[in-house]
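Sample intake sheet
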Amino acid sequence: MRGGRRQRGVALAIVVWFLAAMSLLVAGIVYQARVDVRMAQIHVAQARVEAAGDGATRLMLAALASGQLQRQGEAQTFSGEFRVGDDLVRVELVPQAGLININGAPAELLAELFAGPGGLQPGDAQQLALSVVQWRATGSGRRALGGGMSQFDTVEDLLKVNGVSRTLLDNIRDYIAAPGPGGAGLDWMAAPSALLERFRDRHPQQVAAALKRREKLADLTAPGSSRASGAGAGPVGAGGNFRVDATVMYGDKPWLRRSWVALGNNVRSALPWQVIRVEAPRVRIAG
């Protein structure tokens, strides 16, 4: 009798163990299926953003190169909207000269960048800025022509500097560029409004002067002005390096497709611009 109860107890334990194992197995399969579906959705979103963003970027560059865009003063940030398929894409062009050159900016400006948009404490920001300058002088990055200082080829190369985190890079990436070692700091007149607003407290004179000159030139070049064809007016397209941001709404999130382009003669093709680099699509986080 006792043997039979013992056998039934063992059988019940085996059944319970089997059901638990099957539950874990099913849960694992369901979880993996959800992950696969989510990954597929992300790939679809990225492909759609790439297609729409790249198409709108080329439409904007064509308008820029053909002189359809008019220079309004010296604030050379341009924007437009283009419909590509079912997507309405907003494109913004920002001159690289108006961004902080991480290959040429002095430690003081880098420290302000890391402490302001970067969110670091002033002491930590100053130390990190010195580390960036030291990396440029002695780092293992690609050497500039002539054997000069090491340079960052992309803004992501800042992660090579000890102390630069992904969070910090995400906080400052809208304000920086890596065009080359030439130049120091940034051109206040070409800086986008978001950057001027960020540095208004630290550089009130430069920001105020830039905004005042922009307003004056905007008045001079406004439609109907007798001096609309004077300095600062006219078609854009002679050349220059730009960052091109194409924002595509997919679902309920804004996705960003960012390109870095050089406008002017292109030895590789008949197009009057050259795409230097294109970043992978990502969800745009409001700064």
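Comment: The chain has a mean pLDDT of 81. Residues 22 and 213 are 72 Å apart (CA to CA).
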